[in-house]
Amino acid sequence: MNPAVGPVISQIDTFAFSIILMVCSALISALLTMICFWLKGLRHRMDKHENSLYRLKENLPIEYVRRDDWVRWSLKIEKKIEGVENKIDKKTDDLSKLIQKFFKGGINES
Description:
The protein is mainly alpha-helical. The protein is built from 2 helices and no strands.
């Protein structure tokens, strides 16, 4: 082997290694930059969801009715409606009796 060729190959190897090292460091740098941007976007989305969760927690006591409360209130309302319905039925029956009495022979005003 020619002694002058050895240092040339060594310089080429060193140069090639330097280029490979620069390309690898550029790729790693680009990859890390992309990961940073991805993490920023992820953090932004996470903050957005966290804010909406806090808003939901604030509005929950205002908008939410517990099942037990709903059942109790709806039963109370149903009882009141039934009471009104019974009063209307009684008045309708009384009115019907008066109308029948009127057509049978009149109503005595006493």
